[in-house]
Each structure stands twice: as C-alpha cells, then as structure tokens.
Design goal:
Elements (H helix, E strand, L loop, with lengths): L1 E3 L4 E3 L8 E4 L4 E3 H17 L8 E5 L3 H13 L3 E5 L4 H11 L3 E4 L4 E4 L30 E7 L7 E6 H14 L7 E4 L9 H10 L2 E4 L2 H4 L2 H10 L4 E4 L1 H7 L15 E4 L6 H10 L4 E6 L9 E4 L2 H6 L7 E2 L3 E6 L2 E6 L5 E2 L3 H7 E4 L2 E12 L5 E6 L3 E4 L2 E4 H9 L6 E8 L5 E9 L14 H6 L10 E5 L12 H20 L1
The structure holds adenosine monophosphate.
C-alpha cells in the first residue's frame, strides 16, 4: 500500500496492507490502520472547520498520530504545519498568529485543541470531538500547498515557507527514480518534523509504501536501546544531519554488524565532513553515503552525490553534487540559485522577502539561497558557506538576528548580539550572547539572573546561547552593523587572558 500524491488518496490498498507503516514513539500502525485513522482524522478536522487550503498545525513529537495527521491533511488538501514540542509555547503562538489559526491538532493527545486568543496557550480539555469554532479557520491565499514549514527568521519572527503539492511530488519522484532505496525502505526518522529534512522520510514512506521508525529524543539519547530498536525494525535507510551521525560514532555498536540491513545514509542540512564520511565508510562498508544539499525553501534538497571512495580520494572538502532531475542550480555573482517546480511558492505574508529572494528563471520559480557557491566545468557544485548571518549548529538552522531580537527583549538590555564560536573547520561549536547594559564591570545585572529561563520562553533550546556576557556597548563595523567578528575576538582574548592568569 502507498499514498498517491497526485490522486491525494491511498493506493494499492490490497498490497501489503498488514505491513508496518509507522513505528511511533507511542504505538505502531499497519498500513491499513494508517489509512483508516487518516480518514477518521479528516472527519474530525472537518468538524473543526478545516477544509482544503486551510492550514492545520500539528504539534507533537514522534507520535504515530503525527503521521496520521499529515496523511489526513494530504487527503483533505489542507496544508499541514508541523511544530515539534521542541518549540516553546510562545513560538507556537507566533506561528498560529501568522496563520490566523485558533485550533491545532495535538498529536500527543490525539485531539484538536483550541488556542485562546490572548496568551496563545493551549486550553486543555477543550474542543473534544465535534466543535463549533469561534470563527472558521481561514484558507491561505496560496492554493494546493502540501505543507508550511516555519524556519528561523531575521526579524525575530519565524517565517513560513509554503511548499506546493507539485514540489513534494517532485521530491517523491526523485527519491523513487534515483535513490535506489529498495522496494520497501525502512526509514529512520529522528529530526523533528518542524525541520524539512524529516520530509524525506514522510514522503518517502508514504509514496514508496515503506515503513518509518520515529525515534524520539528520549530514545536517541539512549545509544544502545536506540540502535537495538533500529536493528529490530531492520532499518534500511538512515536519514539525518551529519552532526547526528557524528554523535552516534561514539558508540562502537554503531556499525554494519549491529545494523546489517542498513544500506543507505541520506544526509542533508549541513556540510558533510570528509572525516565523518571516511569513518562511516569504514564502519558500514556495505552502505552508500548520499550527500544532498538544499534549503527548506526548495523542498528538502536540490543537489546530490553518492560519496564513494573515488569522491573521497578527490576532494578535501566534499562537493554538494549535481542538480537533481528537473531542477536547475547556477551561480549568480557567487550565490547559489535554484530553479524548478520544487522551489517554494513564497514565504507566508512576506512580500518583502519574496521580492528580494524569489524570481523567475526560464519560466520556473527560482530562489536565491544566500549560500556562496561554485561550479566546476562538469557541473559539479560546491557550497562555501553563507553570505548572511544564518548559521548551522548541530544541524539546526539558526538566524543569529532571531537570537539578537530575543536578547534585546531581556530586561535592561540596551542592545544585544549573539556570536557563533567556530571550530578550526568552520563549524559552529556554540553561541555566546552579549548584552549592552551600560556597565563596565562585565557582570550581569540582577534582573538578568534568570536569563536562560527568560529566553527559553521564546526560543527553542538549541538557539539559547551557552553563556551571556554584559558589556558597556557593542562594537559596530564600518557599515554600522554590530561587529560579531570583533565580539568573537574579544571573547577569545578575555578567555585567553583568564587562562594565562590561571596557569601563572
Ligand atoms: P535548511 O533549510 O535547514 O535545510 O538549511 C539549508 C542550508 O543548510 C543551506 O542553505 C546551506 O547553507 C546548508 N546546507 C544544507 N545542506 C548542505 C550540504 N550538504 N552541504 C553544505 N551545506 C548545506
């Protein structure tokens, strides 16, 4: 059995209907159960006023019901908006407000929940069964979207990337045609559904008729149990950021012997370091490594390359490969640009950003990525980092300006800046925050005693700086922007001095 994206329905319903479709953190569902429950979900969603083109927020973390809701939304023609519980209530409220949403689906509780108008906190116990919403949820201007995914935004507000159904159909076609994942792939899914990397497994499983194993944060934190779970379900396709795979290498059980069915590592989201690729080739001699690249704005990934021994022998820094079928990638004034049906329809309600980043190229939607790129004579593409202040840390996409905005909202902060501290290879090890308080002594004022807690109300944990430092004022560069490089240097100087004093 599988999900037919073009017809928006379950297809081949008598084929392997008893096979597992989803192994959730809470329960497992066979394909016929997934289909039955998705239809029930559609009826419930309709009772809450949801319909085609009306976005539906799905909140949770790795429950089987999350997949039920996504499949149900595809049946209904309602774009789903995945929000992992890693996002605090405040961020959820901002997302709901951008969508004018008053109700969301709670995958943990398996029910629709209304958001109260002021605080945006869920009203627990509300809206069981059929309900009459205060006002019907609103349809989006863009029609036939598959999902809307919110990523970090420079203004401090997350921005909604609108992905059309034609774009996910292109993703599924590409996976089926080029990835050689076998007849019934069993995917590892561990990235939160609010990150588009996880859409590989969602659409891969649904359209290829495979199985997806949803690994919760609690499970992945227990190395041995996590790997035993993957082995028990005979996972064939590993999907993660390179950072996540790097963590697993600490466990000696993470090897082909422990996971004999694992045939493919599918990476995306950040640089795949050569050293990691080499280690994985050694531990998993029978597995293929696929490095893919692309922003959320172009439906998960746009370029790809199988990283074999020949590729590793030729490159000190891995290429991002070649454009996928039906996509075009080119370098314009040093910036990677992407064109094709898989490019988003635009950011939700952000005409300014759409005008700056989107354009038409040979009749196709096109997007300026903000990535520095290069292409060789054979069309092999390379990504050399960012033009702007967007970073990746541990695989997470972060706009430093979003952290700045949260820091500026702290009591007594006249201005503020976040600064990434990089390892020698350029990857970000951690972020430190600076607040200008007007004081010279560098000590945080009492009002900032609980700064981590204050930030956690607004930012997901991976965006919270590991340290906060006070300063009189922040240095500015020639173009009057806060000089993050100078702050990073100041930080290193202060620590070096402290270390020298300690050693003396
Ligand atoms: P996201 O929207 O979270 O997928 O992040 C997209 C950004 O991550 C891209 O614009 C790149 O800066 C970076 N990125 C994604 N994949 C790769 C890759 N394979 N190699 C290098 N950078 C990557």
């Amino acid at each position: 059995m599988r999900f037919d994206l073009n017809a928006s329905r379950f297809a081949d319903t008598d084929v392997r209907a008893d096979a597992w479709a989803v192994i959730g953190a809470d329960r497992a569902l066979r394909w016929h159960e997934l289909a039955e429950q998705a239809h029930v979900w559609v009826a419930q969603a309709r009772a809450h006023g949801f319909a085609a083109d009306v976005p539906v927020i799905v909140r949770g973390h790795k429950e089987a019901g999350f997949l039920v809701a996504m499949a149900g939304a595809l049946l209904l023609g309602a774009p789903f908006v995945p929000v992992d519980t890693i996002y605090p209530d405040e961020r959820m409220r901002r997302i709901a407000s951008a969508l004018s949403a008053q109700t969301y689906f709670d995958a943990q509780g398996g029910r629709f929940v209304s958001l109260n108008a002021q605080g945006g906190r869920p009203e627990t116990g509300a809206a069981q069964g059929s309900a009459s919403p205060a006002s019907a949820p609103q349809a989006l201007r863009e029609k036939n979207l598959a999902y809307v995914l919110f990523t970090s935004g420079t203004t401090g507000e997350p921005k909604g990337v609108q992905i059309g159904r034609e774009s996910v159909a292109a993703l599924a076609d590409w996976m089926a045609a080029d990835f050689a994942l076998g007849d019934v792939p069993v995917f590892l899914n561990q990235a939160p559904f609010s990150f588009d990397l996880s859409m590989y497994e969602v659409f891969g499983t649904l359209t290829l008729g495979g199985t997806v194993v949803l690994a919760s944060r609690a499970l992945t934190a227990q190395g041995a149990t996590f790997l035993a779970t993957l082995a028990r379900h005979a996972v064939t396709t590993w999907v993660s950021t390179p950072s996540f795979a790097q963590q697993q290498l600490l466990n000696p059980q993470f090897s082909q012997d422990g996971l004999p069915t694992l045939g493919t590592f599918l990476f995306c989201g950040e640089v795949l370091p050569v050293a990691l690729a080499r280690q994985l080739r050694q531990r998993f001699p029978a597995a293929r490594l696929i490095n893919t690249y692309g922003p959320t704005e172009a439906t998960v990934a746009t370029t790809w390359i199988v990283v074999d021994d020949a590729v590793l022998a030729h490159h000190a820094r891995l290429p991002i490969g070649y454009a996928k079928r039906d996509a075009e990638v080119f370098v314009d004034e040093g910036e990677l640009c992407i064109a094709g049906a898989h490019v988003m329809r635009g950011y939700l309600n952000r005409a300014d950003l759409n005008a700056a980043r989107m354009f038409i190229h040979d009749g196709q939607r096109a997007f300026r990525t903000g990535d520095l790129g290069a292409v060789d004579g054979g069309g092999l593409l390379f990504c050399h980092g960012r033009i702007d202040d967007q970073i990746k840390m541990g695989g997470y996409r972060i706009e430093l300006m979003e952290i700045d905005a949260a820091l500026r909202a702290l009591p007594g902060a006249a201005s503020a800046a976040s600064v990434p501290l990089r390892r020698p290879d350029g990857s970000v090890a951690r972020i430190v925050g600076f607040v200008a308080t007007g004081n010279d002594d560098g000590r945080l004022p009492d009002a900032l005693h609980d700064w981590k807690m204050l930030l956690a109300a607004r930012l997901p944990s991976y965006m919270i700086p590991s340290e906060l430092l006070a300063c009189r004022s922040l240095p500015v560069s020639v173009n009057f922007k806060i000089d993050r490089a100078q702050l990073a240097q100041d930080y290193r100087d202060v620590h070096l001095k402290a270390q020298r004093q300690h050693n003396a």
